[in-house]
Amino acid sequence: MAIHVFNTLTRKKEVYEPVRADMTGFYVCGPTVYDYFHIGNARPFIVFDVIRRYLIYRGYNVRYVMNLTDIDDKIIRRANEEGVSTDVIAQRYINAFFEDIQKLGVRPADVYPRATQHVQDIIDLIQKLFDRGFAYESGGDVFFDVSKFPNYARLSGKKIDELMSGARIAVDERKRNPLDFVLWKASKPGEPKWESPWGPGRPGWHIECSVMSMKYLGDTFDFHAGGMDLIFPHHENEIAQSQAATGGDFAHYWLHNGFLDIHGEKMAKSLGNFITARQLAERYRTAAIRLFFLQKHYRSPIDFTEEAMDAASASVVRLATSYQRFAEAAGDAAPILEPEPRFSSEAATSFWHALEALRREALELMDDDFNTPAVTGKIFDLVRETNRFFERGIQNEEDRRLLATARSVLDEFDSFMGIIERTAAATVEAEKIDRIVQILLQLRQRFRQEKNYALADEIRAQLGEAGVVVEDTPKGPVWRWKN
Ligand SMILES: [Zn+2]
Asked: Which residue would you say has higher pLDDT here, 206 or 430?
């Protein structure tokens, strides 16, 4: 089945058709490095990491580019406050950015171009816009002339007239048209500056993304992604600049993630509910943070609460411990790959069919605009089915191979979801939990032998409240997590 993506540009789901056969270009707007990034910004990093990984899983050779905005008003302000150079601020928060995305389980991009290292490329593109009549200079600043670009505001679907009469647009005497935006900013005294044909200054923010995406992915490429707040004006302006400069297509598919609220409110420093990704990662495990975000569709709004994070944490611990038990019981048995295997028992046949169906359904859901919440449901269904199979007792090589098959399907899903912990820490934790539950089960057995059924039942009931289900089998008690 083909991959369908919701394209903001056309406002509908479209079949993904690669621009070129040898490479899938994917550009995501990266951070402005003046501070630690907050959990709202963590969302695009995680969801587009999953979409990128899924495209790779589906066989596409993805080249993933994310810019680092290392010169900007906010960086200059921060540098002035601290009495250091903008480079010091930028480098500090670039380092922090890399540490933080690692804690979110986000795979590094193939390229992280920095604005200050591409100033000549930016000047060249602005010059091209000048030559083609799309740019004008005014008092050392250079602006893009929106009136020269007929398709302006196609991405946001806004009407030019409405935009023009919009009261929010501040009047700027230097602009020919209120919608015109800056390509090159003249430097004020004491600000970092680069020489240009229009005098000393620095690049505007929008032009930076046009230059760096086209430099590393070609003039026309596949995906351009970012938060919904970037649709207008940032992405709108990127399209205008890029298409005006090349005369051809820019990105084909525009993906935008929804907003994040905190307890139903907007996150803002003034409201005192501001949480950085760094603070989040100190409190919660990587897999739990990812699960929290992936339980919602990337385009939907998401509400952050501690309760939701605690629930996600409990879920990922259960997932890791279940995975560990299946993997251990499977040992070195090989997964079953043949299309129509024959089994010796009804239970084995129906378990294999359940695995097959879950795998197929999960991939169809990912193909449908990356429906990670539904895929998460399938992962937990798969664990439930495997637990049920596990409980009847693992007796022979066929059973072990079926467990190995379940493990391999989970591995497949997790190659793009990244919510199953397999680290040494997760293993140690899973073993510890198993050991503690086994001690309690042994105690329960002893109470039963002593005919102290009240205490034996009490242990079972208390374990039940902690989410542990105990089943008595001919080989003794076994336990699993309640689903
Ligand atoms: Zn951008």
From this structure: 206
